[in-house]
Amino acid sequence: MGGEWVEPDGGHYEVVDPATEEVVGLAPEASRAQVYEAAEAARAAFASWSRTKPQERAAILDRAADVMARDAGANALLARAETGATTATARGMQVAVGVSRFRRYARGALEPVEQPLPPQINEAGPLGGAGIVGAVAVRRPVGVVTCVTSYNNPWANPAGKIAPALAMGNTVVVKPAPQDPLSVYAMARALEEAGVPAGVVNVVTGSAPAVGEAAVDCPAVDMVSFTGSTAVGQAIGEVCGRDLKRQLMELGGKGAALVLDDADLESAVRGIGTTFSFYSGQICTAPTRVLAQRAIHDRLVAALAGYAGRLRVGDPAAAGTVVGPVISAAHRERVESYVELGRKEGARVVVGGERPVVGDGRGFYVAPTLLADCTPGMRVVREEIFGPVVVVVPFDDEEEGIALANDTDYGLIDYVWSGDVARAFRIAARLRAGGVGVNTIARNMEAPFGGFKKSGIGRDVGSYALHAYSELQAVVWPG
């Protein structure tokens, strides 16, 4: 922090590989005082960094991407060891996406920040004589941004915060998830090698909530960008509200996959099936809540069961593995408790539901699990499980399906599968979600990303991230 690597006041804690339960490395235990020092260093660096030319900021972000790409092999191994992601996911969806986001915001630093406004003709009055008044809206950096990142992607998620924040001229304090912080330190070293000035990027870690709390409540912090659970987001929001700090919140999800009776079931199964495998279901955008029109319900359940049954659960380093472990023993127990809860609530476990044994029995593995015969009031239908678990609820007509999709506290991304695209778009307009996938789970990385309701506040991705990490200033002058 402050351009120097500092010994932590609290020593170090162990980072554990979810696949082997072996120690990957040691992460610093920062004290509350050290977090405040990091924020003050960011505050001191803001004045000069915010006045650097956009071309200089762009060059540093590009060079950082070069360093990350140069070390992509080692970075992917580290990400796999920390998160339990498969080799392909660590390479392609973690490290590679992190690099691409730094490239994107190197270009983003060069995007215009001024928006000219039409001149206004004013009559003479108490505020002055008659005349024409010109105006321009200009985006200015917010200041010091605390970036609190999620454990499910220690490359793409931090990159999606740090890079646009720096591109806009902000300085940052980064608080990684305690489970996998080592990748973020690798990112910080790449930025250091790329020539980022001292104090512009500061990383603080700790295994206890106190470090994150300090990074949020520090008076030197102007904005908090958080990705994680809705419960933690609400707590952060309360703290930010007291000081009116700017917030960007990407919180939980319970995405509805509305599968209509005219849908291409093969496409729907492929899309929904990613929940079982991608990050082992630890992704807030997953279509975990399947709403199946009754005419195709049984066929869809059978096809999803077949899909889940073909997925190989195992060591993420092994070729052919599709489903790796979840992040920790505690999270495995949480996911398993939801499956057991589903049984007690009356859901039918179609496939999965038992703890798989991989290799010597170590690792935090959860079998891909499909719960059918679910009803809207069940907790497994209403609450985010964040694991390789899919629930299926039948519905009769389109109106009922839309009502069920909207009957949730969440609203991040929903999905509609229908052979009639016009019908799907009509339904999408009625879904209370920040994004809707029509016959796809793919994302457009220039489209705004964020949630309705308890799924978040604000939007990022593409140029929307640049807007999120800036404040609008109006400048007016006499014409």
Automatic annotation (TrEMBL):
InterPro entries, alphabetized: Ald_DH/histidinol_DH, Ald_DH_C, Ald_DH_N, Aldehyde_DH_dom
Q: Say if the entry is tagged with keyword Transmembrane.
A: no
Record key words, sorted:
Oxidoreductase
Q: Does the keyword Oxidoreductase apply?
A: yes
Ranges for domain Aldehyde dehydrogenase:
5-475
Superkingdom per UniProt: Bacteria
| The name this protein goes by in its record | Aldehyde dehydrogenase family protein
> What's the source species for this entry?
Streptomyces roseoviridis
Q: What high-level taxonomic lineage is stated for the organism?
A: Bacteria, Bacillati, Actinomycetota, Actinomycetes, Kitasatosporales
